[in-house]
Write a structure and sequence with these properties.
single chain, mainly alpha, 7 helices, 81% helix
């Protein structure tokens, strides 16, 4: 066997190993992103299961908040029926808005806060919301890693050919940003 042939085989082998390495890295990052969203799904399921309990408790104490509770229930149903990741993100944002309205209503009616069961449920909601925020951060981190890999040289040369592309982050919709940027008003 000639030296030239051995060098050519070695170069081809290095290129094949390099392509396999890049592909496997992209697959790993895509799977990490999907796993991160599965963790969000777990937290959302826990949240959806707890909301009916919260709604039932609040209905018993605040019949005048019927419209707000119906919004929460409708948002929960929409979130449970969402199919794609982007639909789930949008539905989850709507549910977060409805829950924020529920929390504001609770602050306006001190009798609701006096109920021990409601306080326990409110604590559980708060715990779930904290866990959900943490899983969203992990999802965005996994998405950032995937997007960086897809856009970085030399992986960007192969990413498109293998069907990899940048993915959206879990973000607050633009219309909600203005509300979120304002400091909360506190009154006694």
């Amino acid at each position: 066997m000639s030296t030239g042939l051995i060098v050519a085989i070695a170069v081809v082998a290095v290129i094949v190993i390099w392509v396999i390495s890049i592909y496997n890295g992209l697959v790993n990052r895509r799977n990490n992103r999907e796993n991160a969203f599965a963790n969000i799904d777990v937290q959302l399921k826990q949240r959806y299961d707890l909301i009916p309990q919260l709604v039932a408790t609040v209905k018993g104490y605040a019949s005048h908040e019927k419209e707000l509770l119906e919004k929460v229930t409708a948002a929960r149903a929409a979130a449970m029926n969402a199919g794609s990741i982007n639909d789930k993100i949008q539905a989850d944002n709507a549910l977060s808005n409805a829950l924020t309205g529920l929390k504001v209503a609770v602050e306006a009616y001190p009798d609701l806060k006096a109920n021990a069961n409601f306080m326990q449920l409110q604590g559980e909601i708060s715990d779930i919301e904290n866990k959900l925020a943490a899983t969203r951060r992990f999802f965005n981190s996994a998405t950032r890693e995937l997007n960086t890999s897809v856009q970085s040289f030399p992986a960007n040369l192969l990413a498109g050919a293998f069907g990899f592309h940048t993915e959206p982050m879990f973000e607050i919709p633009t219309e909600q940003r203005a509300v979120m940027d304002k400091a909360p008003e506190i009154s006694f």
